[in-house]
Amino acid sequence: MICYVVLAHRLPAQVARFASRVAPSRVFLHVDARVPPEVWEEFARTAGRHDNVSLLERVPSPWASWGSVRAQLGGLRAAVEGRYSHAVLASGQDYLLRPAEEVDAYVSARPEASWLTCARVPVAWIGDRDGGMARFTSWHLPVRGRRVRFPLRRRLPSGLAPHYGHANSVVSTALAGWVLEQMQERPELEKYFRRTWTPDELFLPTMAMASPYADRVVNCDVYYTDWSAGGAHPRTFRTGDIDALVAAGRGSAQKMPGGTTKLFARKFDPGVDSAVLDALDEQLLGLPAPAARAPEETG
Questions:
Q1: Predicted TM-score (pTM) above 0.85
Q2: How far is CA 254 from CA 64, 169, 244, 250, 261, in A?
């Protein structure tokens, strides 16, 4: 059985809605240690209302920092200890494009596989002039979400080749267990990746392709995202995107980056448009109209 590792820093009602949709699958929830007390209390209430939600130890996890990787590793450790087959790495703004039981069946049918985007750096589509190499070879410090780079040349730890991929992925616990063992045995790994740029997009793909499970990595993206706006973050989906979302979920869309199998989408924000989530519930997840749902599930 699979589980979900959700990293969140806002939108507790959205996370609660996601948790209800994937139930009874376990959700290991990490909440950024920097969130205001009132937001944390709402996340804690979410865990109390949903039997399938377990709270992880909190660490500060600002964007582009090593803290995001620490949070992921905490969730992967919980998945390994719980003897799940796979962990879905998600954010607090993700949603299903297929019913939870279909996701579970799809993933469980390949018990040794992991689904990650793993592009050997340099790659042109990253957008950096050097194809992303400096993210590895220069010393970085994220400051309030901005990239501070120092011209200090660095080498990757022994046995690793630079790879890039999206943070959201589906990881087998066999691979996760190997990564956790490596982190314990090789303290230089954290020291190195802590000073890369966007380590949550570098660490796991690089480790996966250096692992004994590299030949079981499916190099695809099971998340549907829209990067057409440019910049470091994808567009927030709205009701006008419902046809594209439904096509992605049903596998009837035209050729898409990362392959045509899309199990999830990001990102959503009920404060921007909650109707798009209602439409996904009805058209893809087979759930009743909003008025028929329990209040705590509406987000």
A1: yes
A2: 31, 22, 10, 11, 11
Residues in the chain, how many?
299
Cβ pair 186, 157 in contact under 8 A: yes
Measured distance CA(151)–CA(130) in Å, rounded? 14
- On the question of pLDDT at 71 being above 90, the answer is yes
The secondary structure of the chain in percent helix, strand, coil, rounded to multiples of 5, reads: 40, 20, 45
Whole-number Cα distances in Å, 131 to 98, 162, 197, 203: 34, 11, 13, 17
2-221: which CATH number, 1.25.40, 3.90.550, 1.10.287, 3.30.160? 3.90.550
Residue identified by tokens 């066999």 is 174
Across 42-70, b (16+ Cβ under 10 Å) vs e yields bbeebbeebebbebbebbebebbbbbbbb
Residues 6+ apart with CB under 8 A from 178: 211, 212, 213
Is the Cβ–Cβ distance between 5 and 76 less than 8 Å? yes
> What span, in angstroms and rounded, lies between the C-alpha atoms of 15 and 93?
7
Spatial separation of the C-alpha atoms in residues 234 and 244, rounded to whole Å: 15
pLDDT greater than 50 at residue 298: no
With a CB cutoff of 8 Å and minimum separation 6, the contacts of 227 are: 234, 235
